[in-house]
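thread: overnight batch results

M.L. [08:02]
morning all. the overnight job finished for the chain we discussed friday. pasting input first so we're all looking at the same thing
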Amino acid sequence: MKHPALRQQSGMTMVVALVMLVLLTLLAMTTFNLGKSSIQVVNNMQNRDEAIAASRNVLDEAMSSTRFFDTPSDALDQPCLNSNHRCFDVNGDGVVDIVTALSAARCVKVRKIKTSEFDFRNEEDRGCSVGSSNDGLIVGAQNGDSMCADSTWEMTATSQDQQVQSEVQVVQGVAMRVSTDNIETSCK
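M.L. [08:03]
and the structure it wrote out:
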């Protein structure tokens, strides 16, 4: 014969067990979702870093020559898709992962260099002089201007990840000493 106190508690153990099972299930689902979102964050950061690296690569390539201001619409050697585009296969599977577009460089500032600012021991400064040197004076220079100018350019590269359609834009400035002839035609 059962004790009367035990008859009153006959279903309570099952209710407590079901509540605990629901709580453990919620805890497991929350842990899974947190882990999944962490993986997505890491993946997004990796995609972003790869796109930034592709943009910097294109900017470095463009800055290493004078093509970006001589022929701004065709600044990259052997482009893909269209001019001023570079394609990257990041994981080596033969499929283009990132396409980077280089915008035409924009001249921000230009300053003609006076011959009095030169150090003629420096080969780059000697190449900018007009005429011949005579006791530190440059014969043939007008208004004290040289054949060179210091210019500052702003370049923009935009990389787009082809899988997730994310986009990264990198803007970089570059200072370059150029011929005054180039400045007059490309920096207005």
